[in-house]
Write a sequence for this structure.
């Protein structure tokens, strides 16, 4: 940092135009430096939330409002709605069987349906892309429940309230009502939750457990038996506990700070005694990635590479 020469007159003539232009070319604007660094860090995740990328692509401060949810209203309109093929959205009251889900490429009539909840900073088109990756990997039809984004700050704040089971979350409400209705109708349900979507899934399952106990008068054993009809897979999830009953498979990348710091923890976790993956859960921990924590957390380009068939996973066959 250069010192200020206080002996100079405030009326010293300005430097010639050519000199000023040369200086401008030689000194990069601090905001531009920040943008360049951010873009370098996100180089291998070009699709990670278009809203977020717009921020880092921009060179003027007005665009930073997007980071704080300044233009989130369009996506918020879909909060808690079902998502089907081509990004169509449906009200939460729509029967699951009536939603045209995303199907695997080359297989328009899969035999199984997965219900998927996305993570933070993911607008509708981002969730649709993830749903296609899940469909292609699993061979199942995928129906989404949209967890809308309102910007990084608001999304993270909602994660805190979800962990505390405080406040409303439309995605939690839709998932809980759907799971309860499907169980009462005697149908099995296969759920997937990624990042905050895993936290939303856990919160919804606790709501279902509570409802079965209070409204239906079931004992703890009866609730667990009823919820055993649920298959639940989480990827990089931000929840540290899940109710007993469902058949769980949790995927945790040791190089991913989301599940290791806010979820079930990595292979070495001094706070493991505080975590509860659910009775009989399979927790598959692995190490994959680089020095970029965002790419280490990606669903389609990282976690889907490690996912195996649900029954294989339940039996510990991950190779």
């Amino acid at each position: 940092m250069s010192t200020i020469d206080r002996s100079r007159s405030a009326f010293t003539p300005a430097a010639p135009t050519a000199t000023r232009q040369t200086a401008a070319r030689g000194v990069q604007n601090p905001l531009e430096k920040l943008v360049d660094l951010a873009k370098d860090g996100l180089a291998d995740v070009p699709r990670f939330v278009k809203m977020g990328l717009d921020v880092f692509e921009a060179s003027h401060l007005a665009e930073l409002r997007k980071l704080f949810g300044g233009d989130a209203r369009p996506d918020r309109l879909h909060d808690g709605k079902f998502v089907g093929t081509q990004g169509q959205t449906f009200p939460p009251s729509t029967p699951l069987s009536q939603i045209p889900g995303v199907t695997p490429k080359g297989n328009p009539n899969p035999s199984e349906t997965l219900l998927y909840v996305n993570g933070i900073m993911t607008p509708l088109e981002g969730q649709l892309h993830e749903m296609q990756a899940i469909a292609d990997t699993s061979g199942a039809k995928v129906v989404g429940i949209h967890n809308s984004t309102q910007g990084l700050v608001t999304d993270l704040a909602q994660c805190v309230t979800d962990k505390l089971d405080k406040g409303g979350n439309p995605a939690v409400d839709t998932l809980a009502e759907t799971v309860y209705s499907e169980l009462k109708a005697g149908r099995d349900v296969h759920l997937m939750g990624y990042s905050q979507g895993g936290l939303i899934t856990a919160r919804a399952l606790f709501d279902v457990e509570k409802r079965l106990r209070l409204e239906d008068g079931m004992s703890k054993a009866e609730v667990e038996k009823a919820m055993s009809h649920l298959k639940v897979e989480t990827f990089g999830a931000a929840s540290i506990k899940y109710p007993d009953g469902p058949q769980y498979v949790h995927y945790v990348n040791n190089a991913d700070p989301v599940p290791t710091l806010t979820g079930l923890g990595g292979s070495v976790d001094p706070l493991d005694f505080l975590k509860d993956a659910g009775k009989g859960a399979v927790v598959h921990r692995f190490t994959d990635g680089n020095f970029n924590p965002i790419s280490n957390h990606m669903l389609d380009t990282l976690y889907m590479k490690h996912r195996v068939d649900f029954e294989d996973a339940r039996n510990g066959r991950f190779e």
About this structure: The chain is about 40% helix and 10% strand. The mean pLDDT is 85.
